[in-house]
Amino acid sequence: MVLKNKRPFPTSNFPDPLRDVLFEVQLSFKCPIELVVSSVLAAISHASQHAINVKRGGLVSPVSLYLSLIAESGERKTAVDGAVMQANRQHQKRLGEATANKGVSYEASLAIWKAQYRGIHARINSAIREGTDANCYQEELIVHLGKKPVEWSPPRIIYVDTNMEAMLEGLHQRWASALLISAEGATVFGGHAMRGMDKLNVLWDGGDLFKDRLGVSFAIHNARLTSSIMIQEKPFLGFMEKRGGIARGIGYLARKLVAYPPSTQGTRFIYGSNTSPMPHLALFHERISEMLSTDNGKNQFKEVEMSPEAYACWMDFYNRTEVELLDGRYLADVRDFGSKIAENAARIAALFHHYLGRDHYIQVDCVKNACAIAHWYACEFKDLFGQSQIPQEQIDAQMLEDWLWTLFRKHNNVFPLPKQRIRTYGPNQLRNAERLNGALWTLASAGKVVIGKQGKTDVILPVISYFCSLQLQQQPIPPLPFC
């Protein structure tokens, strides 16, 4: 997996009102722009998925997005998530307050139902004691059992670090449109939620789910889920090692828009006041609240369709992507993702259309912008999960050079290193003799090390002129004010 892209995110392809939000939040939190993008897209997806589906040609699909961002601890994931999704969280709070009385009504109805049940039961017992026919009460009992009040639970639309069973029951009983979020995604990727990746696929596709376990059976129809998970590199790599093959094999990762941006830590300087107002974010919250105001938990979809010109643009993107799935082409090693990216582009276009409050057809500007964003995510997925085009010995050589450079900086000198010392204390991947030999040969061919012997011992001597030149290229680090 290649980490930390340096390809700039195409922020210019966001509609003006949303681009203003991106820059405003990034300026305030001084975080990677991709982090803000993930939160903004998730907020819009959640606020839209109950109301619209997107139609492209003869196919209709949800507009829900699954987003994941790999970011190190301290990148302000939680803070950005909280700021951007404020309106989504307030919507859940309002629903809870508006339906609080239903809990009292349920308790009262249940008490009356139980009293009536005891009355029927008493009459049945009396008939049995008197030796009369108790079957005459059977129909009354059946009708009464069918009238038992349904247990009420407060609406829940946001799930944080949850498990699959709780979320499915919530989609069935509480609210049919939900948002799964985690700013510390290790609990999600490493937890029970990921054991139901096939169910997450069905929700993304807009299909029906059926649960039948331990005597509890129900069906989930027309449910919608937006997922926004932020995870650190180490837990993500652990997930990929344990369950990555399954996640790729069943198409779960193929549905996700994943980003791993470079860190901004070390550059987040403060100049003057750090409490600047964010008027564009306030307008964003107003619009998200307006979109969520039509969410009654039932999911009634309006199909939004592309204009002929917009559909032609989307079709061109689809066809150009399809060609890249051929053997030897750019997306050949990530066909799972490549086969879904045009659909994600259509979803993003519909989300832009809905957020902007437009009627009628999705216009070509939304589709062009969405395709550009989807293209970026395709390149990102390729960088992260595609087969490396760099020969393994070159990757190993760079790994070994970095390790030698660390030693040089520590001792400010070079000295012969026994080859066995590198195998023992060097990078774990190079403890394999064949890979270590390939890396050493590559560095020796480039004039960066000399391979020799001291007696019977194989030794490696870093070329001092090369490593000194690296030191000259390093930028000085100013001392911290409290050092």
Description:
With 483 residues, the chain is of the alpha/beta class. The protein has three domains: 11-97 and 154-385, 3-Layer(aba) Sandwich (Rossmann fold), CATH 3.40.50; 100-146, no CATH class; 392-473, Arc Repressor Mutant, subunit A. The protein has 18 helices and 13 strands. It has a five-stranded parallel sheet with strand order 4-5-8-3-9, sandwiched between helices. Strand 12 and strand 13 (457-462) form a beta hairpin.
Task: Using brief descriptors, characterize the structure shown.
483 residues; alpha/beta; Rossmann fold; Arc Repressor Mutant, subunit A; 3 domains; five-stranded parallel sheet; three-stranded mixed sheet; 13 strands; disordered C terminus
Q: Any low-confidence stretches, pLDDT <50, length ≥5? A: 474-483
Kindly estimate the percentage of residues that lie in beta strands according to DSSP.
5-15%
CATH topology of the largest domain: Rossmann fold
* Coarse morphology: elongated
- Total helical elements: 18
Largest sheet: 5 strands, parallel
Mean of pLDDT: 85
- Domains (count): 3
Gross CATH architecture of the largest domain: 3-Layer(aba) Sandwich
Structural class: alpha/beta
Task: Find the count of extended strands (DSSP E, 2+ residues).
Answer: 13
Helix content: 40-55%
